[in-house]
Amino acid sequence: MSILAEKSYAFAIRTVKCSEYLQKEKKEYIMSKQLLRSGTSVGAMIAESKYAQSKADFINKLSVSLKEANETKYWLRLLKDCNYLEEALAKSLIGDIDSIIKMLSSSIKTSKESI
């Protein structure tokens, strides 16, 4: 498993746990489900890219993953700014997704250059 796949899988686990916390402890259901959907989609698209049918398909799957990662960051920021997430937890999750975003951007750029 690649470092990107490992990081995105670990992030998905954290996202699931965060969503559970938001629903059980904060009684927040709408944004937590949005976070769960986008946060787990990041890794799912990276996993799909492993079996891409072509270089273009690979780039497309990573690009969708990048979009989901950016959406996830949006939900994390919103949850933090609405006081549903503590500052330390939000910063930790945002730091993780920022790292994944950088790796995805680099992978996409490298793949595009090799075409």
Describe the structure.
- The chain is mainly α.
- It has a single domain (3-113), classed as 23S rRNA-intervening sequence (de novo design (two linked rop proteins), Up-down Bundle), CATH 1.20.1440.
- It has 4 helices and no strands.
- The protein has helices at residues 3-25, 30-49, 55-81, 87-113.
- Helix 1 (3-25) runs antiparallel to helix 2 (30-49), helix 2 runs antiparallel to helix 3 (55-81) and helix 3 runs antiparallel to helix 4 (87-113).
- It is elongated and about 45 Å long.
- It starts with a helix and ends with a helix.
- The mean pLDDT is 97.
CATH fold assignment:
de novo design (two linked rop proteins)
How many helical elements? 4
The CATH architecture is Up-down Bundle
- Mean pLDDT metric: 97
Please give the radius of gyration in angstroms: 15 Å
Beta-strand percentage? under 5%
Low-confidence stretches: none
Distance between the ends: 24 Å
Tell me the helix content: over 70%
The CATH homology group name:
23S rRNA-intervening sequence
Total strands: 0
Category from helices, strands and their pairing: mainly alpha
Give the count of structural domains: 1
Form type? elongated
Highest CATH level, the class: Mainly Alpha
The main β sheet shows up as: none
What is the N-to-C order of secondary-structure elements (H for helix, E for strand)? HHHH
